Amino acid sequence: MYSLEVLLSEKFLVLGDYNMPDFLDVNNFSAKKQLVTEFQSFYNLKQCNSVCNSLNRILDLVFSNFDCVIVRDNNPLVAEDLYHPALHITFEVDIKSKKFVQNRNVKRYNFRKANYIELYNSILETDWSFLNMCEDLDMAMDLFYQKVYSVFDLHVPLYRDYKRKYPKWYGSELINNIKLKSYNLRKYKQTNLNIYLVEYKNLRKNIKLQIDMAYKNYLSNIQNSIHDDPNVFWSYINAKKDCTRIPGKMTYADQELDTPGSIVNAFADYFGSVYRTPSVQALNGKYEGNTSGDIFSMFFLDSKDVEMAIKKLKPKLTSGYDNVPAFIVRDCGNVFANPLKTIFNISLRLGTFPTIWKTARVCPIFKNGDVSDVTSYRPVALLSSFAKVFEIALHGRIYSATRNLLSPYQHGFVANKSTVTNLVTLSQFLSNALDNNYQVDVIYTDISK
C-alpha cells in the first residue's frame, strides 16, 4: 500500500470492475460515483477505457496519470463473459538504472541450500595437523580458512544478493509451475497450437489453488512461531507495512539521503566520527601498573575448554565477516575444537589477536528519536563465531580466577546476577535508610554513544 505522497509523485494505473455503468453519464449521480470521482480528481487521473460490453455498457474502468491505449482483445486467453470484454492495454514504462551497485566479487555461501550430510562428513574427515607446524598466527589463520572454504566450495552453493521476485510463501514447486505457465503461454502465442493453451489454462487454475494454500500455511507458521521466534512475526508486520528496518529516505548533517550508497556512507561517517583510532604506542605498549601480586599465571586452553565454549554458541545463521554461520561451528564443535585449540594457544603464546577477527560487520540498530535520522542509530558489530568461541573460552578461565576480586555490589556481567538482583538490593538499601531516617542520593548515568 503506497502513501498518498508517493502516489502523487509516481506514475500508476488503477483498473478493475467498478460496476458503475453510469460513471460516464454526467446526468446520473450517486454517492459511490462521487467517491470515485473525488479519487480521480485528487490524483489527477483520467479514465481511459471506452470498450463497451455486449450490453453496450462499461463496467471495467481504467484510471491512470499517464497515456495508455486500450482496445478490445480479439484473441483472449480465457473465456469472456457478457459483461467484461478482454482488454489489451499498451503503455510505456521508464526503467531507471540502479545508482548503487554492490560488490559482486564478495563470496557469499547460501547455507539454506547446502548438502549438509556431505558437508559435515567432509569437515569430519579434514586433517588439521598442518596447524601444528605454524608459528605465525596470521599464517595459521590463512591456512585454517583456506581449508574451511575449500570444504564449503564443494557442498555449499554460492549466491549473489538480489531482490526476491516471488513472495516468501512461494515454494519451489509453485515457482516452477508459474514458469511453466509462462512457457506455455509463450509457445501458444508463437505456434497457436491448442495443446499449449489447454496446458496454460490448467496450470493457471492449479496455481491459484496452490497460492491460496501456500499463503495459509505461511500465516499458520508465523502464528505458531510467535512464542519461540517473535522476529518472524515482526518481519511479517514490517513486510505488510512495505517498510524495512532502515527507511529508504534518511537525513544526516542537514542532507536528505535517498540512495542505498549515500545512506551506508552516512552511517560509516557518523559511526567513525565517535571512534578514535588508538596510537601505535598504545597498541604496542606494555602494562606498567602494579605487577607484584599476580592474579593468575600464564595458561593454555585444551580441547575440552574449546568444546565447552562452542556449545554456548546460539545455533543461528548469523555470521561475521568470515561468512561462517554459528550453527555450523556448533554442529561440528567436536571437530573444530582441536584446530581452534591450536590457533588459540598460538595467540596466547605470542600475545597477539588474529587480524581477520579484528574485522566485523557493523549493523545499525535504532535506539531512540527520529527513525529517519542517522544519528538515532548505534552500531552493533557482528563478530566471527570463532572469535566468540575464543572469548567464551578465555572468559571461563579468567572469571574463575578473578571473581573473588569483584565488588559484591556489581551486578552487571556477573554470573547469577542481573538488573533484577540489582533492584532488589537497592530496594532493601532504601528501605533500611528510610527506617533509620537517612538521606539517600542516587546518581544514574548513561553513555549515549
UniProtKB/TrEMBL annotation:
Name of the protein: Uncharacterized protein LOC115876163
